[in-house]
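Whiteboard transcription, Tuesday session. T.W. wrote the structure tokens on the left side:
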């Protein structure tokens, strides 16, 4: 078989996977060259853990679970989910930066799969966020957080968190390809996440919220991820509606939300890339 014939034998799916792997490796190789990015990415979640654990730990009661230790165990799943959600910013800024520097134009001149270009960025960021999550786990153990349902359930919780990061990174990819530059992408990637995060069960139990906000908070996608992790970790997880679907099936709801987000935003991001590059 000649070299010219080889590409035609490669399926589009295999080609996309190969391209995504190459670009994911490129994304990871930049981390040792920019250690300040690694430092700041890990400092923020550590600051949130320490701030909420020691400043608000005695001020926010957990219904049915008295004491500061209960709040720290309640808190950690919220911090995990918030950090994975904020992965949106890394994808949006990174892709916007690549667009502004003309790197995407170079990719356009190569025989690369459209989905592979964006998927490579997303996969690289998921691996990076797995490292950030490891740092947070260590910090959580230091402040008194523990899981109580076995190592297997804990691994399932971490898998859900990484799946959520994967889903949110596709949202960030679409934002990064839609805005004019990395500065705009940084704001556009985060400004809508703050109300979504704080109008959830991440930091405050939903029974403590005003009655009109309780259903909104309990069906919030971030709340579903947090509730699933608390369920799997065996941490306190009070609900305003304990008989509702979010309370009874938190793991299934979290998987449904992740599937919906990926199913909507991954095709939109790939299509946006195609239109932005004329690919």
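and on the right, the sequence the group agreed on:
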């Amino acid at each position: 078989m000649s070299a010219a014939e080889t590409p035609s034998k490669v399926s589009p799916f295999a080609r996309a996977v190969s391209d995504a792997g190459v670009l994911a490796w490129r994304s990871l190789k930049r981390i040792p060259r920019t250690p300040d990015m690694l430092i700041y990415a890990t400092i923020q979640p550590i600051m949130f853990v320490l701030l909420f654990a020691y400043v608000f730990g005695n001020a926010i009661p957990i219904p049915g679970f008295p004491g500061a230790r209960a709040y720290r165990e309640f808190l950690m799943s919220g911090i995990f989910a918030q950090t994975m959600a904020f992965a949106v910013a890394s994808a949006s800024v990174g892709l916007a930066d690549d667009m502004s520097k003309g790197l995407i134009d170079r990719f356009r001149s190569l025989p690369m799969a459209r989905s592979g270009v964006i998927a490579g960025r997303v996969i690289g960021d998921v691996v990076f966020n797995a490292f950030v999550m490891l740092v947070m786990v260590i910090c959580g153990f230091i402040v008194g957080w523990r899981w109580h349902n076995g190592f297997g359930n804990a691994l399932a919780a971490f898998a859900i968190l990484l799946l959520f990061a994967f889903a949110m990174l596709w949202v960030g990819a679409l934002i990064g390809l839609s805005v004019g530059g990395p500065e705009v992408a940084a704001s556009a990637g985060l400004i809508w996440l703050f109300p979504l995060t704080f109008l959830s069960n991440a930091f405050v139990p939903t029974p403590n919220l005003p009655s009109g906000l309780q259903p909104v908070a309990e069906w919030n996608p971030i709340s579903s991820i947090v509730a699933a992790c608390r369920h799997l970790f065996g941490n306190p997880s009070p609900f305003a509606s304990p008989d509702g679907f979010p309370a009874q099936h938190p793991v299934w709801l979290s998987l449904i939300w992740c599937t919906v987000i990926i199913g909507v935003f991954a095709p939109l991001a790939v299509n946006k890339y195609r239109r932005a590059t004329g690919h």
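Someone added at the bottom: Residues 196 and 222 are 7 Å apart (CA to CA).
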